[in-house]
Amino acid sequence: MNSNPRRDIKFACFNCRKSFERNVACIENTMACPECKKKAFRYDHKFRPPKKEDDKQWKLVQFLKENGFYFQRILKKDGSRAVYPENLREAAVFVKEYADQAIE
Ligand SMILES: [Zn+2]
What residues sit around ligand 1, an ion, with C-beta below 5 angstroms? Predict the structure, then answer.
């Protein structure tokens, strides 16, 4: 068991197609990417960035982001955790179904 409750905060840069972690007590939802200085977005620590060359998956991550989904926990009606979609077609359904749980 991990006795340390501290969770690193993850940020993703769509320009570099990378994620990086900060363990500061960060309250910002965006920060400048350390490499390209463009805007990087805060993600849940569970976020696993796709491979850099994986256009499809990055498009999916971007689509979800534009609809307010940052791999935060999404709950189904029965209280169980919803699984994030694996392709854009599933994602279109997902963002509608869970629109009330999207981050503004
Ligand atoms: Zn960058």
Answer: 13, 15-16, 33, 35-36
